[in-house]
Structure formats: C-alpha cells, structure tokens
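Fold this sequence, please.
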Amino acid sequence: MNAQRTPPSGATSGHPGPSLTREDPVPAGSLIVVGVGASAGGLEALEEFFDAVPVQSGLAFVVVSHQRPGHVSLLPELLGKHARIPVVEAASGMRLQADHVYLGPPGSRLSLRQGELHVAGPVAAEPHAPLPIDSFFRSMAADLGPDAIGIVLSGSGSDGTLGLNAIKGHAGMTIAQDPGSARYASMPQSAIATGAVDYVYRPRDMPEALLKYVHRVRQALPMSQASPQVWQRILHLLQERSGVDFSVYKVGTAQRRVERRMHVNQVATLGEYLQYLEANSSEVDALFSELLIGVTSFFRDPGAFEVLARELPALLDGRPEGSSVRLWVAGCSTGEEAYAMGIVLEEYLAQRRGRLHVQIFGTDLDSRAIEAARAGFYPAGIVNDVTPRRLERFFVKEDAGYRVRKELRDLVVFSVHNLLTDPPFFRLDVLSCRNLMIYVESPSQQRLLRLFHRALNPGGLLLLGSAESVEEARDLYTAVDRKWKLFRRSDVPTPPLEEIHVGAMRTAPRKVLPTSPPSQERAPSVVNLLQTLLLDEYAPVSVVVDNRGEVVFIHGRTGTYLEPAPGRPTHVLVDLTRPGLRAALAAVLKEAASTRREAVRRGVRFRSNSHAARVDIVVRPVTQPEAVRGLLLVTFVPPASGGPRHRPLPPTPAPARGQSRGRGRARESELVEELDYTKERLRHSLEEQQATNEELMSSNEEMASTNEELQSTNEELETTREEMQSLNEELQTVNAELRAKLDDLGDAHSDLQNLLNSTDIATIFLDKDLSIKRFTPQARQVFHLIPSDVGRPLADLLPTLAYDRLMDDARDVLHSLTPCEREVHSADGTWYVMRILPYRTMKDTIGGLVLTFVNVTRAKQGETVLSQARTYFESIVDTVRGPLIVLDSDRRVVSANRAFYRTFDVLPADVQGRLLWDVAGGAWSTDALREQVERVLPESSAFESVEIDAVFPRVGRKHMVINGRRMEQQIGLPGLILLAMEERPGAP
C-alpha cells in the first residue's frame, strides 16, 4: 500500500503537494474519468464523497454499484441531493462530459469505448455472473490509459480489485476507502492487499486528493528537460536496491512510469524525485514494482489460447506414455497465465490416451508477485475471464474469491528469475513470453529471441504478446498464427549460449534521456591549420600499430604502400601492405618489437601500380607519452626524400650509370641487387621459420600438458557427475518424503477442520498480541468475522456479546496462565459458556490464547423450565392439607410442604438436607418404614399404608399412615421419593 506515506517537501495537512481549494478549477487537458465502485454500505460513502466534489472539478464521474436486475434504483435521486453537479443514469451511446455524474443501471454491465458509455443487458443473478465494477474498470483502463482513475468504496467481496490492477497497469491512478471508515471493509481491503492502490483515504478526503493529482498531471514538465545525470542516478538507485538494470528498458516506457510515481507523490521535477527516492527506500521499492508493470489475467487474449490448444495435438500426440512436457511462462506476474497454460494442457490430456508428466515453470522478477502466484488465491473477479465449467473443475470457491485446486497447483513451479541475466530453462515444448519484450530495446529483443530458440525443443512453440513479433530473428521461427503471435521453432543452428547471453548488454552505460543539442563546433584556429598543413606536407607516410600488428592510426597518403587484400576485411598491417613489402615489413616489425629499439630496412623493392619502386621502412617503438607507450610507429620513406626530419636516413647509393657502361652491365647490376634482396628475404624467412618451429614445439609441449590437465579435469567432472546423480536421487527421495508429509499434514488439517466444525463450538485462536490467528466458522456468530480479519487485533472488532470485560479477562489469562470461564449472552438472547485458555505449543511455550464459546441457550431454557416446573409443583404441594416430604436417593430431605412443618412443629432448617432417620430425634426410624423406603428407588416400586406410632419431640405421640413412590414417573425428576402422610387417632 502506497498511501499515507511521508509526503515530500511542500505537503500540507497530511496531503502531499500544493494546497488547492475545492473550488479551484483543474487546468484544461484531455478528459479524466473517475470510476467509483461501491457495494454494501456504499451509499453513505458515496454521499460523503460527492458532498466534497466541487462544482468545477473538470472530471467526469461514473458510479458502478451492485444492484439486482429489475430493481428500481433511488440512487440518482439520493445522490442528486448531495452532488453539486448533474447526476444522470448512464445509457448506451452517451458521451462523457466533465463535471457530470453517470450512474450504471441496476443489474447491467457498463463499459467505456472511445469516450462513450455502453450498457449491456441485465446480468443474471448467478454464482458465476461477471462482476460489474471489475468489468467497467477494465474497459476504462483500456480506453483511457493514464487518464483513468479508479476508486473502490465500501462493499463485501472483492469486486474492483482486478479492475484497479488494470488501471494501474495502464498508468492510471487508484484510490481505496480507508477500511476503518467503511461499513463493509472487504472490497477496500482486497484492493489494498494487492499493492495496486496509490492512496487510502476516507471518502470526504478523496476529492481533494483527486484535484491535487490532476493538477500535478496537467502542470508536469516534459521529461526531455530533465538532466541525464539525474536519470542515470535514479537507474543506479534501482539497481542498487533490486539488483536489476533498467537501462535496457525502453526510454519512453520507463519515463512514463517514473512520471506516474512523481504525480502520485506530488513531485514537480525529476531532481526533486531523486531526492525523495534517496530519502525513502520504500519509494524505490514502489518504483521497482511500477516498472515491472505486473498486469495479467486469466486467458488474456482468449484467441491465443484457442490457437495454442489447437496446436497441442500436433506437438504432443506422438509422445510415449510417461514422457515429459515442459512449459515456461516468462514474466508470469501473479501466475494467472501459468495456471491458464496448465488448464489448457489438462483439458488436452483429458482427451488424450496415455498420461504425460507435465512441468510448468512460472518466473518473474517481482518476488511479491511470485508469492501471490504460489498461494494460488484470486479475487472473485476472475469470473469475468474463466468459464463456469473451468471454475468448477480447477478452482475451489472460498469466502472472497477462488483458490486453485491442488492438482493444478502441483503442475506449476514458481520462482524469482531475471530473464535478462539468469540462465534459462531448456528442453521446452512451449515457451510463453507475452507483453514483456515490448518494454525492452531492440538489441535485447534480438538476444531474447535467440535465447528462446536455444531453450525450445525442435518444433517447440513460442507464444508472444499481441504487440510483439519475431522480425528481429525471423530466420529462427516459422509463423503458426500471425494474428495471435504463435510461432514454431525452425530447425536451424543457434549461436552458442555465451554469444547470446543477454546480460552482456548491461556492460555499457546508456543515455536514456535526450540531451540539449550540442553547441556548434568552434572554428579551427590558425595554429591548428598550420600544424595540419606542415604535417601533411613534410611528415612521411606513417602507420601506428599495436603489439599484435593491428592498425591503430594512419597518417598521410598510404595508397602507394597499402592495398586491402580481397576477402574478409582485416586491420593487420602486414596483410594490408603490397606483396613486395610484406616480408620485409614483417621482419622489421618483429625486430623492433623484440629489441624495443629502432629497426630499419632500406631500399625494399616492390611494385606499385605496375611500376617498380623502392622504399625505406623504419619501425620505432613509442615510449612517450605514457598513454601510447608500447605502440610501434611504422614510417615509409622514399630513398630520395632523406627520411624523417628528426632522424634522417643516409641515402641509398644509386648504381653507377656512366656513359661508358652498356646495357649489359646495367642489367647485371640489377640482377645482382635483386639476388641480394632475395637472399636477404630468404634469410629472414629462415629465421622466422626457425623461431616459428621453436614456438610450435613450445606450444606442443604446452598442449600436451594442457591435454593431461583436461583428462584429469574430465575424470573429476565424471566423478562430480556421479556425485550429482547420487545427490539428485537423494533429493528425489527427500522430495517424495516431503510430499508425503505434506499430504499427511493436509489430511491432518482436514481432520482437525472437520473436528472443529463438528463440535459446533465457536473457537478463536489469538497470538501473544491478542491478534486473530485463525477461527472456526461458528465464531462469526459471536464477532461477525471475515477471512481478512486474520491478523487484526481482537480489540478492534465489535462482538455481539453484552459483556465488556472480554479483553480484560484475556489479558489476565495471558498474564497468569489461569483459565477463565464465564457465562455470557449476546444481544439477541443467545447464551454462551466462554472459556479462555492459554495456547501451549509443542515446545511447551505459551503462544497466545484459545477462546471457546459453547452455546448453552437450550440448557438455559431447560433450567428455566425446570425452575418454573418446580415453582409450579411447590405451589400445588403447599396447598395440600396433608403432610408431604421429598427425599433424594440418599434418603435426605429435599423439601417438605407447609402442612408437614405445621403438623410436627418444625422449621425447614431442622429438616432439609438431613437424613429422614435423624429427623425428630429418630422418630421416623422404624424397621417397617426403612424396608419400604429402601425398595422404592431400586425397584421403582411404591408402598401404601405403612403405619408408625412414635413420639415427636414438640407435638408428642402421633399415629401416622404413610404412602410412598418414585417421583420421575410423574414429572421426570430422577432419584426422588415422595412420602405422603395421614394422621389417624389412637394406637394401632
């Protein structure tokens, strides 16, 4: 969540950016549309929101809510009392206007195309019906791009979550209501949990945030005016924080994303934003997520998946039973496309005879997205993308969305992976990289396409996004379907992996921002012109070479001496010289390089343009300045020129040509000279050959030694391979054991879940901070809990109990570790026995508390009935004129009527709770009465007319006739004996 962050400089009143009043008009520009989604409890939030919308905001508002088809909506009338701008019900073909509110008709699907509203027919109220807020937000994002703003208000469920993701993916702005101010917080919480929300506000604060954001967008300076150094520093901060080099991204894409973050944070210039990044590492993380553009959905471009499903039989029908099928989804974001690939493959395998072993790899740079993909839980909005049949087969419905079934989840392995630098997956049958290459520059695209070609099996399929193609490497792929960008790998060689490694493109820094046009070059000075003239006129033709003989610099007209050889171009000086000069040049270069002293060859004969010529070759090692030390300066000096000015060469003596010599003598002199030259060249050639032979012998020895090392290394690699194979087998065994343990844990979890559900006891588990860890479904009757409440403090939730010491009791138990039990009741009259117990872990440590609430309403009602029955019984008994007494199973007196107390002149305290045989000084303890009373309960019998004659302490002698029986036969009170007495005069 990116809202409520520490604002940059200039922020006031808790809101970043310049202060605006509600009546300040927004600067002119393209129409910005604000989509507002609300559900349960949303009317109050909408009224509060439009109370704060000014008359001249310059924005168009579209409200989409959950209303059943056929419902007569009162929303236009109700909002019209709060909004100071016109409120109308949307209709197809209606073009949006600024400062208007448009309401979606009840039960219909609203969409936006080219600035016009379109209303689809009523949506059936069924479990898999499309969600209206997600549907409209997506169409708004696709139509408006950065001019779309999405707001999610109070509501239950998760509608709007996927829509806000789509708006942010198109560089729009997103807001969610503060869950604490929402009557139903599920929708805002679901949106905030994705990280796609820019601001979190109460409804009355949202319009001010909107105006500030739009004002910043309208007044933003173009990025072309920013400093390249500032931009490079921002990219460096990103690389330091995330390890990813974003300089390979397309400049326009990266700039638009940075601009959006600047607008969100109300920052005016790139320099200020750099300062904000340096002061807030969380903003660097937010910018990293922004640049990744993690927008995806199930079966995006359904036609592409239909084409892929059509091609799978041709690719896989010939595979033997149990063989592997490998797929890679590069840039999978939160995993929707990877699971969609798994669904398509499972549907194909359901029709195919024989099972294949499926492996799907989903990779992405964003670790948070990978964690979400591994969880496999998605908002209810996926009903807009997944058919009801697929939802039922591959997903499990949960409270706020859908979770991928285990059999589909087991097909996919997710991992964090940098496509540009990390090693790829190989032996793939299908590779999907959709809408990722459009964000990187052309050289990176070329390398990626070559990398994919190497990763795919022969005939493997490559699926790209709708805006991507293989034009950068068209020789490597054959089109299967150009419309949906499905290609088949061509059977042509692929360059080695080290030559196409994409990470190499990160070595050179890039200029990603346009700079100001360079100033015009200054006109050369007179001194520079004269120096150039003198060098061209008097300095001899020269070439500077490095220690490998490659040309570094050329001065003068070298056409007389140099002639490019036919074939592949080369920069080696010896290969560039004319044939007659090569041997002498090679010799003199070698001499100068080995001795590091000047070497000279005079009068070297060669042919230039069909004419014979001579030249002196001088090679001098360069020692100054330091930057060019180690280079060799090669100078070509015609013999008549006298050589370089700084080191003149003695002229080569010309052959004597007197008038007295004839042509034969001249010819002989030329032949002798040519023979000497040939001998000299032969001598140099022999020396070079001898040196070469020595080098070859040395190289041969080195190669032999290297071969031995390679053999040793090969043996080590073989040993390592065996160890790796053994380790792999161990890992497979451990993996099987872990999978078995996971299955056991899953079964145990299911057993415990069923046990808790079957007990019908509301149970809440708390941690040491008294925050909710988990709860049973029955607990919702006590606290109105929802799945997103996990992690919230229990004190933040309002229970239905009429008991205000719950948290005090919980803290006392956590402190004293003494269990607590209370009888509590809710406002609706439901009674519970509440028990608070310490939660003990397997390590015998206290990990929190366990709260249980046992519904005892029926027992309470039974007690009430019993009390009423007892009162009723006692009222009847007290009206009987003869003495009555009730005994329990131990023959102790439970109660007696008034006639008993009056007849024997005793008080209740003298009788109740005492054995009958001890009452009245043992007057009742006769053998005949004892025998009959003892038989009543075991035999469920009754007796009549047992007579006793005894002296009672206060009233004297009395003659009593006693009848007795079990009482449960009449009113269901087990273990009680009723004795009825009648006084008769006289002795027996």
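The two ends are 98 Å apart (CA to CA). Confidence is low (pLDDT under 50) at residues 1-28, 501-523, 642-655.
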